[in-house]
């Protein structure tokens, strides 16, 4: 029986790399993003390069609770995925004391609330079947405060806290929970920055870390993975 993975924000960056890595292993793919054209392109690519897998690629803005619900219901109509990766996120630079009005609300809805509501949509079924693996895509911004991090850092500290709580809650139910905490990764968030590629983490390396953590024996779980550029934070 085939396995399946749900990855939010799966058309670009780390999300795309995770989708590609698990599709390579024959996993059915469930993903969403806000850009319909990107979703159609991803679906076509996956079906052409990995024949036999199922792909559901749905347009959804997960900063809106009602769209989280619509997406989760579309997936649940097919199955409960074996792996859930809460990857959707947005970064708007700024300081807490003077960032534009609305930054905090938009980032916490996108980065944190989406993961909270999506996890709640699937976790009871995972508990019932006594299996599943939930990954949260955090950031070193959730470990270390830095200037201009503003509300983004607040959301990532909160994501780490939520993930730690989930880990404790789901221990006795054999549902694994892992927090991924990448440093500067070469994605669109860093577009235009005048730094060499070698200064960044590769999105594919983050995906390999997720794949490796998933593949441990049932009695073992990786709780946190911190991934930084070899030369340190940017």
UniProtKB/TrEMBL annotation:
Keywords: Oxidoreductase. PROSITE patterns: ADH_SHORT. Pfam families: adh_short. InterPro entries: NAD(P)-bd_dom_sf (IPR036291), Sc_DH/Rdtase_CS (IPR020904), SDR_fam (IPR002347). One of its GO terms (molecular function) is oxidoreductase activity. The lineage of its organism: Bacteria, Pseudomonadati, Bacteroidota, Cytophagia, Cytophagales. This is SDR family oxidoreductase. It comes from Algoriphagus lacus. The keyword rRNA-binding does not apply. It comes from the Bacteria. CDD domains: SDR_c. Belongs to the short-chain dehydrogenases/reductases (SDR) family.
């Amino acid at each position: 029986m085939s396995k399946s993975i749900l990855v939010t924000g799966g058309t670009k960056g780390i999300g795309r790399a995770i989708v590609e890595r698990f599709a390579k292993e024959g996993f059915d793919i469930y993903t969403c993003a806000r850009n319909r054209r990107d979703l159609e392109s991803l679906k076509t690519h996956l079906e052409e390069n990995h024949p036999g897998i199922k792909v559901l690629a749905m347009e959804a803005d997960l900063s809106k609770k009602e769209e989280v619900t619509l997406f989760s219901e579309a997936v649940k109509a097919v199955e409960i995925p074996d792996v859930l990766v809460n990857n959707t996120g947005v970064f708007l630079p700024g300081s807490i004391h003077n960032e534009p009005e609305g930054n905090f609300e938009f980032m916490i809805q996108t980065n944190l609330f989406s993961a909270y509501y999506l996890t709640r949509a699937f976790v009871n079924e995972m508990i019932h079947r006594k299996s599943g693996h939930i990954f949260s895509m955090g950031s070193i911004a959730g470990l270390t405060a830095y200037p201009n991090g503003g509300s983004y850092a607040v959301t990532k500290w909160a994501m780490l806290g939520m993930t730690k709580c989930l880990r404790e809650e789901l221990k006795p139910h054999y549902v694994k929970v892992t927090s991924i905490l990448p440093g500067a990764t070469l994605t669109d968030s860093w577009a235009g920055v005048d730094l060499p590629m070698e200064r960044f983490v590769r999105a594919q390396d983050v995906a390999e870390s997720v794949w490796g953590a998933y593949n441990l024996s049932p009695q073992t779980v990786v709780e946190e993975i911190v991934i930084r550029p070899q030369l340190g934070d940017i």
